Amino acid sequence: MVLGWRRRRISHHAGKKHPDVELVVPNHFRCPISLELMKDPVTLSSGITYDRESIETWLEAGNFTCPVTNQILRNFDQIPNHTLRKMIQDWCVEKQNFGVERIPTPRIPVSPVEISEILFSVAASARRLDQYRCLEWVQKIEKWGAESERNRRCIVANGTAAVLAAAFDAFANDSVERNATVLEAILGALNWMFPLDVETQRSFGTQASLRCMVRFLRCKDLSPKQNSIEALKELVSCDQHIVEKLSDIEGVIEILVEFIRKQICPIITKASLTIVFHLISFPCSSEKIKLTFVRTGLVSLLLEILVDSDKSICEKALGAFDGLCGCKEGKEEAQSNALTVPVLVKKILRVSDLATEYSISALLKLCKYGGRDEGRVLVEALQVGAFQKLLLVLQVGCGDEAKEKATVLMKLLNPYRAGLECIDSVDFKNLKRSF
């Protein structure tokens, strides 16, 4: 590697003696990959030193050569270069008047052996139902994970999630009330290990574990609520059997609707909408589940959310709304709400392809299977520019399913177009422009 000097502009800091200057930074203090000042320099078998994070990213991408020399590495050992790190720290202290902050001394990364030992202890304490010892080990895992992204990847890669999920199930089966502290700690640790593998989903998706998470949803503290709702979202998104188990738990529907109504925080709102969507849409979903959601006022609530919401919330709300329109009571509730048709038409081609597909699907259900009110819905859809929007869907392109449903809906709308000729053309254009 060529050693040289690079100039770096350091901004003036309040209270510093020097104005903006070109600070000379030695090239050998920079990582050859990122060209940034190294925080944790490590040396490979090729003799070249890199910043640990940069070279780990390089190796994890499947590269087996040294980036500088291009020679094949004899091994992937990364030896900490303490001498160079100390030189960099001394240089930072020397240049602190220029606004340079001293890099902290890096912690030694966790090893697979250490993780295996901790996981053995977690499993043993869970079998004995020793919540205090188990809590101690879980907190150790959390501490390692907080130290670096490299530690997190190593922890996840060594099967930590499966062991923690099994421990969670064991303590949940024993007593949620007595073991609440360790259960909350395990849930918090698992939340940064998503997505889960099939084995972990099986351990984590037991009836006892699900009931425990639903109970945490009723907590006053935000953290257990957020961790539980995120875990439930992960589980229902992966396994339909878990969706069925969750739907059997008393009170879960009311809790989810309340979260959507109060909008405590964006994470909880989005996760609740996702879970509702899966509860409504999974193949074995009963009419009773949909009816319960309708009776809680979810149809009107979703329409209010759709009036002004960001993309991710809008997609999830439209998916849930489309699912509710699949039952008789849901259709009747949607048809009786003045916001339904204008909002659905407005969302076509305004949010995303997925949102467009859900909007068209919901409109089709209301128009084709809407009973005595389907004629009124078709006329209202025409009045707010649905036909023109659907024509654009066919022209600009969306998913095949969206195009197919748009074609069917246009055929339903076409006979009603002639009946609207009496509408003043100027007013009609203004009405369409607003959507």
From TrEMBL:
An MF annotation (GO) of this entry: ubiquitin protein ligase activity
SMART domains linked to this entry: Ubox (SM00504)
InterPro entries: ARM-like, ARM-type_fold, ARM_PUB, PUB22/23/24-like, RING-Ubox_PUB, Ubox_domain, Znf_RING/FYVE/PHD
EC number: 2.3.2.27
Top-level taxon of the source organism: Eukaryota
GO biological process annotation, one example: protein ubiquitination
Pathway in which the depicted protein is active: Protein modification; protein ubiquitination
Keywords, ordered alphabetically: Transferase, Ubl conjugation pathway
Chemical reaction(s) catalysed: S-ubiquitinyl-[E2 ubiquitin-conjugating enzyme]-L-cysteine + [acceptor protein]-L-lysine = [E2 ubiquitin-conjugating enzyme]-L-cysteine + N(6)-ubiquitinyl-[acceptor protein]-L-lysine
Domain U-box: from-to ranges: 24-98
Enzymatic class: transferase
PANTHER family in the cross-refs: U-BOX DOMAIN-CONTAINING PROTEIN (PTHR22849:SF119), WDSAM1 PROTEIN (PTHR22849)
Role played: Functions as an E3 ubiquitin ligase.
Descriptive protein name: U-box domain-containing protein
Lineage of source species: Eukaryota, Viridiplantae, Streptophyta, Embryophyta, Tracheophyta
